TrEMBL record, chains A, B:
UniProt key word Transmembrane helix: no
Region (Disordered): 136-165
Compositional bias annotation for Basic and acidic residues: 154-165
SUPFAM superfamilies: Winged helix' DNA-binding domain (SSF46785)
Keyword terms: DNA-binding, Transcription, Transcription regulation
Recorded superkingdom: Bacteria
Keyword S-adenosyl-L-methionine in record: no
Occurrences of domain HTH hxlR-type (ranges): 16-115
Record lineage: Bacteria, Bacillati, Actinomycetota, Actinomycetes, Propionibacteriales
PROSITE patterns per the UniProt record, alphabetical: HTH_HXLR
GO MF entries: DNA binding
Biased composition (Polar residues): 139-153
Protein name from the UniProt record: Transcriptional regulator
DNA sequence: AAGGCTAGATTGGCATTGCCAACTCAGTCT
DNA sequence: AGACTGAGTTGGCAATGCCAATCTAGCCTT
């Protein structure tokens, strides 16, 4: 039985969208589970084996991610195999890719390791991409030009071409 | 005395930059402390009062953030006041703004609350900004065009809708 | 139809982290 | 000197995480 932790509940009810996002994602594993979906992993066993996460924690994290619409649990059957469950990213899950990319960009820049690394690239051109602030015309703006200011919710509703579908 | 947790250590030594970033940041409070710096908070007491975080946890989190170069502890003295400590964001700390903005964008879109919120805007024009993937020329590309590929192997897809069978 | 196999959890025991309140300590100010 | 106060520390306890062992329900074989 899943009982939502106090910390998650507090965060999820926050008026700040950052805090609510963290209510779903701020633990040692959730982001890494999403990362694994980028490499095509979908099943309980794949997550367990690639991450080395304790199975009870994995059960709980998958439940939280499904509950908040990041993943969707769908039956799946390979030929000659029994039915299994796959945890497929939803559109909301796909929208986390840019958060992961931003984290990757930051870690590569500020916690370097001189190792092989994975970078976002354009599927069309194959050229590398980066994560940046862009203005309403889609042109990137320097990091220093970005400031946070409060506004009403309706102002951010317009979200033109962010989602693919 | 601060002893680094096993989970942080494991993550910080990962070859994946996402995992290393999470080694510094993946807990219920670190991102929120960084968020508070966006609103000008700098001192122990300001973080404690605005976040309601337990003081022992705050001590530990500030230590971790200083240790990894996100914040810098500097003496600070207001007129007619005793010397106090301020935790100032470093350049690495400022670079986290885009991660926070990405989280805010995701939470506003997928965990809506119809509340006042804070959005990134251009300091120059005052127009709203958003976080996007951009190509080498600084033009935004659609989320669907972004895939993750390793610098060594280019066969890892970000697009999760294709599963081999 | 019975039995075995195995993916996907669940459970128990212990370690780590988080939370709260009370307490300490060291500069400042009077 | 003595009081004040910002910035932590400490102690007790609850919650979460980790690991190994165990359970369960579909599916397959016989």
């Amino acid at each position: 039985m899943t009982v939502r932790s106090r910390a998650r509940t507090r965060a999820l009810e926050d008026t700040c969208a950052i805090a609510r996002s963290l209510g779903v994602l701020a633990d040692p594993w959730s982001f890494l589970i999403i990362r694994e979906t980028l490499f095509g992993r979908r099943t309980f066993a794949e997550f367990r084996d690639s991450l080395g996460i304790a199975t009870d924690v994995l059960t709980d994290r998958l439940g939280v991610l499904v509950e908040h619409g990041v993943l969707q649990k769908v039956p799946y059957r390979a030929p000659q195999q029994r039915t299994r469950w796959a945890y497929e990213p939803t559109p909301a899950g796909h929208d986390l890719n840019i958060v992961l990319a931003a984290l990757q960009q930051w870690g590569a820049a500020h916690l370097p390791r001189n190792e092989l690394t994975v970078v976002p690239t354009s599927a069309q051109s194959g050229h590398p991409l980066r994560v940046a602030f862009v203005d309403t015309e889609g042109r990137s703006v320097s990091q220093g030009d970005a400031q946070f200011s409060s506004t009403a919710r309706s102002d951010i509703e317009a979200d033109p071409d962010r989602r693919s579908s």
